[in-house]
């Protein structure tokens, strides 16, 4: 299943540093795929993608699909933003527990229809900026 795409009318304020280890993740995201590394020995996924399993130290990893849905573990709205993100303030960020058990921190896209809350179901989306992609969570839209 492909991630839904949200078009952003701007360039990324702080583009990610793409390394040899994370390039497959960003290339997949550009195609709407939501993946990370999974361990061939203990079976656990990690995010962000790793070159060594942080659970058992195995170097036998493969690319695996992440759950596109989860729930908000915590969130906050940033009003006093760092200078580089000042033009985007106020904005929200959150920690999401994905259905697959992986916990990630990311931007939270707020919608007018739903106020964010702990435990709220969310879906992951691809943010298509003018210069590349990022990702975020937003309230699950039924
Ligand atoms: Zn492992």
Record the SSE blueprint.
Blueprint: E1 4-7, H1 23-30, E2 35-39, E3 45-46, E4 61-65, E5 69-78, E6 91-98, E7 103-109, E8 121-129, E9 132-139
Parallel strand pairs: 1-8, 7-9
Antiparallel strand pairs: 2-3, 2-4, 5-6, 5-8, 6-7, 8-9
The structure holds zinc ion (ZN).
Task: Tell me what you see in this structure.
- The protein has 142 residues and is mostly beta strands.
- It has one domain.
- It contains one helix and nine strands; from the N terminus they run βαββββββββ.
- It has one helix spanning 23-30; strands spanning 4-7, 35-39, 45-46, 61-65, 69-78, 91-98, 103-109, 121-129, 132-139.
- A hairpin with a 2-residue loop joins strand 8 and strand 9 (132-139).
- The chain is globular and about 45 Å long.
- The model has no long low-confidence stretch (mean pLDDT 96).
- Bound molecules: zinc ion.
Features:
mainly beta; 142 residues; five-stranded mixed barrel; 1 helix
Please give the largest β-sheet: 5 strands, mixed, barrel
- What is the helix/strand order? EHEEEEEEEE
Helix content, binned percent: under 10%
The hetero molecules present are: zinc ion
* Shape verdict: globular
Structure summary, number of beta strands: 9
The low-confidence parts are none
Kindly report the spatial arrangement of strands forming the biggest sheet. 5-6-7-9-8
Domains counted in the coordinates: how many?
Answer: 1
**Share in β-strands:** 35-45%
Radius of gyration: 15 Å
End-to-end span in angstroms? Answer: 16 Å
**What average pLDDT do the residues reach?**
96
Helix/strand-derived category reads mainly beta
With helices defined by DSSP (H or I, 4 residues minimum), what is the helix count? 1
